[in-house]
Amino acid sequence: MTSNGMEYKPLIETALAAAKDQSFDTVSFIWMQGESDANNRLSEVYEESFIKLVNKLKKDLGRDDLQFVIARINDYARSRPDNDHWRSVRETQVKLGKTPGNAWIDTDDLNGGDANKPDGDIHFPEEGAVILGQRFADKAIELITKP
């Protein structure tokens, strides 16, 4: 992950404040990132970095049972000749999402691609973002309702 980590502390503080004096049977973390890792050719460390992030979240939130739903980055870069890192991040995201207790969602149809712009865009148009949120919610609910 290419971030300098500035976002992590506010994330934890916000989550802990929102959960104060409440109990939860389950906690699911949703993740939609990886484009910068692919573009910066960091695919080889993506899996290790993600696992470290999840383990840190589990520790800092006090939730060893934290589950995650990871959205696979879309197929925007599929026609670029140098898309090996993009493809690798996508494959790693699916692999991570298939680990026990976790899941992944497909985003290839959400990037606004059509006959005029077959690759779509790296970011989702508004309607794609809404559907992405629905898919995250559906998959998280599916995870918590599994026996």
TrEMBL record:
Native organism: Rubritalea profundi
Single GO molecular function: hydrolase activity, acting on ester bonds
Name used for this protein in its record: Sialate O-acetylesterase domain-containing protein
Annotated Sialate O-acetylesterase domain residues: 6-141
Cross-referenced SUPFAM superfamilies: SGNH hydrolase (SSF52266)
UniProt KW keywords: Hydrolase
Pfam families, sorted: SASA
